[in-house]
What we know:
Elements: E1 8-13, H1 24-32, E2 35-38, H2 44-47, E3 55-58, E4 61-62, E5 65-66, H3 70-82, E6 86-91, H4 101-111, E7 115-118, H5 123-131, E8 143-148, H6 160-166, E9 171-176, H7 182-191, E10 199-204, E11 212-217, E12 232-236, H8 241-245, H9 247-252, H10 261-266, E13 276-279
Parallel strand pairs: 1-6, 1-7, 2-3, 2-6, 8-9
Antiparallel strand pairs: 4-5, 9-12, 10-11, 10-12, 11-13
Helix pairs in contact: 3-4
Amino acid sequence: MTTIARGKVYFVGAGPGDPELLTVKAAALVRGAEIILHDDLVTPAILALAAPQSMAINVGKRCGAKKITQEQIHELMISSARRGMSVVRLKSGDPAIFGRLGEEIDALHAAGVPFEIVPGVTAALAAASAVGASLTDRRKSSRVLLASGHHADERKLLASADVAALVHEDTTLAIYMPGHDFSRIRKELLDAALPPETPCVIVSRASTPDESMLWTTLGQLEEDVSVLESPTVLLIGRTLENVAQHANASQSGLVPPHLPTDFLYGEQHLDSPTTIHLKRSLTP
Length: 284
């Protein structure tokens, strides 16, 4: 039984959007918090779990638009905890994956405020589940690399010296916040000698009723995929071949029935580069 402490900050992973994917502890903390400081991407269905008397404040920052500065978020956490309130810092996905957790932990350490981290389902796992794929496969993929397409400066996706060392044919790559400049990602990975026929899928709003996905190959990644809404995750790797090769994929609706036959059942690679957009409603 989870008991929420007053004067303490809980960093809680809200998962990808579906409230049923919250951990039992995360749900209990959301229900018991006196103040919830949440990201933009936390869905209304999850915020609806909060007690009527609790205070929910949106402290999200998306696409460079800031409702509040990072320093102000620190001050809100610290001042609320010092007033003896139970504070939940609710972050989409997992708090420790591309969520500025390190900066916020440092602020609490400096202020002497106790905290606890409650993990959540990160977007890459939700995206893999949405397409029915395993991120690892001992026959094809022995490593998973999580990367962000967004940086505080204008660096490349990966430092050029690191790409060839980190990304191999046995790597499944999950790129968070890839933006719309897929030509940049395509060039970096092709320059690192990743085969152009490597399967790719861009998953939008994984686990929500608005979930949709676009299948393509590394060589055919488009510069602007305007049909997909943020947030998106880009998955790249040979382990995605399993989805197309499995006969149940076409029956389950995860792969459109008009996919090329060689993609579905025969070859290990997409011989004819094809981009296919699938939008799936999760509502009954």
